[in-house]
Specification:
By secondary structure, the protein is α+β, with helices and mostly antiparallel strands. The chain has five helices and six strands. It has three domains: 39 residues; 40 residues, no CATH class; 65 residues, Roll (Nucleotide Exchange Factor Grpe, Chain A, domain 2), CATH 2.30.22.10. The longest helix is centred in the N-terminal third of the chain and has 43 residues.
Length: 204
């Protein structure tokens, strides 16, 4: 009985093995990638890594340039708000100087000298911080980037669009406008008797 059982188990095992072999024979063998495919995959991975590296380096350079630009802007324009507030001091000193007549100068020479010295020191401080005065000349062409027109008026022999009066100086800080100069401008119709671009007057 035992021998028959053993023979049956052996026969069953052989039958199962035969079925497994047939199943394996029916499967298509998997092709392993060849050297060219491996090289192409490695090159694609290399190119991707190189592209990512170049992008990272470009971004780092942009950040460095932006930080440097921000540093320079902070150095040049960091005091803009304070400078605007101090301009009122400059204006008041200028008005004080303009109101002093010869009699007052004779009576209070030392005081006036002190005011003048204060004004010079203030302008020196402005210069150290790259703050410059905009003082348009009469007859100069109106510049909307630096001037603010307070009024227009027809003026004989004045070229239309030229400065005819300066009411308040302007200021620049580095390359930026801190405050425009306030001016009066010759209106259209002024200078009707000008004959050429050089401002020659016919009846001169």
């Amino acid at each position: 009985m035992t021998d028959n059982k053993t023979e049956e188990d052996l026969a069953s095992a052989l039958a199962n093995k035969a079925l497994d072999d047939e199943a394996l024979d029916g499967e298509e063998p998997q092709d392993e990638p060849g050297p060219e495919a491996i090289i192409a995959a490695l090159e694609a991975e290399r190119d991707e890594l190189r592209d990512r590296l170049m992008r990272a380096l470009a971004e780092a350079e942009n950040i460095r340039k932006r930080a440097e630009r921000d540093r320079k802007d902070a150095e040049a324009y960091g005091g803009t708000k304070l400078a605007r507030d101090v301009l009122a001091v400059h204006d008041n000193l200028g008005r004080a100087m303009a109101s002093m007549d010869e009699d007052l100068r004779a009576k209070a020479g030392a005081l006036i000298e002190g005011v003048e010295l204060t004004q010079r020191e203030l302008l020196n401080a402005f210069a150290k911080h790259k703050i410059g005065v905009i003082h348009p000349e009469i007859g100069e062409k109106f510049n909307a980037q630096k001037h603010q027109a307070m009024f227009e008026a027809p003026v004989p022999h004045a070229r239309p669009g030229s400065v005819i009066q300066v009411m308040q100086d302007g200021f620049m800080i580095a390359e930026r406008l801190l405050r425009p100069a306030m001016v009066g401008v010759a209106a259209a119709g002024s200078g009707a008797d000008l004959t050429d671009d050089e401002g020659v007057v016919e009846n001169g």
